[in-house]
Amino acid sequence: MRALRRIVDDIRALVRASSIPHSHLRDRLSAALALTFLVDIVASGLLFLLERNHSQTDIHTFWDALFFTTSQLTTLSSAMANPVTVPGKVLCLLIDIYAITVVATVAGMFGAFFSHRSADIARDGQRDGPDRPA
Fold first, then answer.
1. Which DSSP state fits 80?
2. Which terminal Cβ of the chain has fewer Cβ within 10 Å, N or C?
3. Which ranges does the record mark as transmembrane (predicted)?
C-alpha cells in the first residue's frame, strides 16, 4: 500500500511540477505527446493522399489512414496491409523511425528524471542528517 501511495504522490508532483525534475519531465512529456499527435495527423493526411487512388491498398478514407498511422506509431504494426505505393512505403518507414525514436527519447526522459530525483533525495538526506524520519 505504501508503494501505491508513493506512486500516486509522484504522479501528483509531476502534474503540479513540484520540483525542477518533475517540471522538466512534465514539459518534455507534454512536448513529445503534442509533437506525436501532430505527426500522426500530418502523416495520416499524407498517407491518405498517397494511397487513396491505388486499387490494391487498404487505405480508402482518411480514417483508414489515421488508423494505420496510429497503429504504426504505437505498435509498429497494423491489422491493415502496408502501403503499396513507393512514397507510401517511404512514409511508413519514416513513421516507424519516428516511433522508435520517441520511445527511446521517452525512456531517456524517465532515466534523466530518476537520476536527478535520486540526486535530489540523496542531497536532501545528507542535509537533514541520518536521523530524519522516512
1. S
2. C
3. 29-50, 93-114
